[in-house]
Amino acid sequence: MEVRDGSEGAQMLSSSLTGFLRCLAL
Predict the structure, then answer these.
(1) All residues at 6 or more sequence positions from 3 whose CB lies less than 8 Å from its CB, including other chains
(2) CA distance 25 to 19
(3) pLDDT tens digit string along 1-26?
(4) How far apart are the C-alpha atoms of 13 and 7, rounded to whole Å?
(5) Are 3 and 9 in contact (CB under 8 A)?
(6) Buried b / exposed e across 13-22, counting CB within 10 Å, b at 16+?
(7) Considering the entire predicted model, what is its pTM?
(8) Rounded to 5, what percent of the chain is helix, strand, coil?
(9) DSSP assignment, residue 4?
(10) What's the distance, CA 12 to chain centroid?
């Protein structure tokens, strides 16, 4: 798994984390 842009990876990770937390909150 190549990481070209660190900020892109952080955005993807935070967005998926947010979705996961939303699922837990429901």
Answers:
(1) 9
(2) 10
(3) 565 666 787 888 899 999 999 999 87
(4) 10
(5) yes
(6) eeeeeeeeee
(7) 0.51
(8) 75, 0, 25
(9) S
(10) 4
